[in-house]
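Okay, any thoughts on this one?
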Amino acid sequence: MTTRRDFITKTVLGSAALVAGSSAMGMTASSYRRIIGANERLNVAIAGLGRRLGGYYEPVSMESSNVRLTYLCDVMKSQRENALVEFSKRIDYKPKLENDIRKVLDDNDVDILINATPDHWHTPGSIMALKAGKNVYVEKPCSHNMWENEQLVAAAKKYKKDVQMGNQQRSSDHTIEIINEIHNGIIGTPYKAVAFYTNSRGEVPIQKKAPVREGLDWDLFQGPAPRRQYTEETWDYNWHWYGWDYGTAEAGNNGTHEMDVARWALGVNFPKQVQVEAEKRHFLKDGWEMYDSMQATFQFSEDKIIQWDGKSRNAYPTYGAGRGTIVYGSEGSVFVDREKYVLYDRSGKVIRDTKSVSNEAGTALGGGGDMTTAHMVNFFDAICGKANLSAPIDDASISMAMVHYANMAYRSGKEFSVDEKNGRVLDDEVMKFWSRDYAPGWKPSI
């Protein structure tokens, strides 16, 4: 059966010949281009209308993106309504509001799912979309555990669709520039990268059983996760810190970005050894249920090392910024974050200090900005054959693996080795955390 995307592709390929004959059909070339533009247009559905929503206003509403927002989907009624109000300021048509992602994916006219749901929905929702013939832009972390990580890559390959993770610094001009220079030897041989994130998150309420919030589909929020009674502070942002049913801790929440830049800079794939020191250090009697401070070390071949320094609730500016990556080389070093990069020689002298025009959010909740816009436009262009993906899922998933290794080391309390060729953990005790328990009927399958 010919899919809508196949039809669009054939239409685009044949457009030049048809335009040439448009006068004979009594149609001007400009009129025909408007029709072709509509045929090329990608229909987009957004699932998850929380704090990342602001990042989608510009790339989805820009005329040059040539996309149409067809659905706004969220399990909370107020978030659907708020999203509609905000998008109505930017578009002159009305997308449909939907509670259930499955109904959205049943619509054959939808070409793209932007998956901005909580972490535990990222892989299951993305695989559902791929099976329904959609391309997927999935926010970080692309998976909740290593088993899902592998499944998502396999599904993208099986269904031959574009899947991009929201590690938007891959589309940052100044980051691309300096990474290319690092690869070309500007600091000699890069051998170590320190990726960091520092924030001053406060005390988190202790969970208390409560009636389900008005307008919230609690069963659908849980989705793939095992069922439990609703607790008042869980639905909004604190699901990140309330155990492992929904979140991936700070390594998954923010470390994904910086560890991805570190791996990119060093040109490495899977590590061969993982070691972690992590603990809850602040507000010891509050509701936060996992580490809030972590030092992780990943050892790679050729004596290369990545260290992750995550401090969620102690904002001491160890590296002079809230987040970023420092890359050490045999002949110099580089500091890079979302705003700039600074190049140093081996003696520590500043050789180049840039300041980009980026307005991408740093450690503030929510966010969006020009990097997100560029990353999403890259995704739209790749689907139309105009560009290569900046962060294809087969590569992004390797950076994601570092997050899962860090969490597995913390949960098992063990240092462990990894098979560099396939990423498999070489420790049976640690492998207990390779996957998770799923609610009956919700385990992803491809």
Notes: The domain at 172-209+213-362+392-433 is CATH 3.30.360.10 (Dihydrodipicolinate Reductase; domain 2). DSSP finds twelve helices and 15 strands in the chain. Residues 393-412 form the longest helix (20 residues).
